[in-house]
Amino acid sequence: MADLELGEVQARFADLVWEKQPVASGELVRICEQEFGWKKSTTYTVLKKLCEKGLFINDGGTVKALVSRDEYSSRRSTQFVAEAFGGSLPAFLAAFTSGRKLSASEADEIRRMIDEYESSRL
Question: What gap in Å lies between CA 9 and CA 118, rounded to an integer?
Fold first, then answer.
């Protein structure tokens, strides 16, 4: 899996593209100049890096997402658990909840997710 970690600048840019896409690359340059104070070359450099990560494509001057914001978040979470906890979701949950208590609604939501998962396997 490609490294999906985004720095702050890349994350802000990605959010903008997800919000505006599909967007003409020239329009994206204009928006980035207004929003971030970027030059054209900066916009294209950041876009190229995110295209290399497989998030976006610049197809004939139109920038589109190859991966939705939700799909990106899911992939990034999976990558984090794989790297930090050897892919073990129970180890992640143990670390995440150590030192803090789950609220009743959080525990109920986790139970509901597990129940839905088990129901889908039948």
Answer: 40
45-79 pLDDT tens trace: 999 999 999 999 999 999 999 999 999 999 889 98
**pTM of the entire structure?**
0.75
21, 63 in Cβ contact below 8 A?
A: yes
Cα distance between residue 8 and residue 51, in whole Å: 17
| Helix, strand, or coil (residue 74) | helix
Domain count, the chain: 1
**9, amino acid identity:** V
- d(C-alpha 13, C-alpha 6), whole Å: 10
Contact assessment for residue 22 and residue 63, using Cβ atoms and an 8 Å cutoff: yes
For residue 61, the enclosing domain spans: 8-69
What tokens appear for 114 in the block?
A: 């597990």
pLDDT tens-digit map of 75-120: 889 988 999 999 998 899 888 888 888 889 988 998 999 999 899 8
Q: Which of 116, 7, 11, 1 is nearest to 69 (CA)?
A: 11
Domain with residue 27: its CATH number is 1.10.10.10
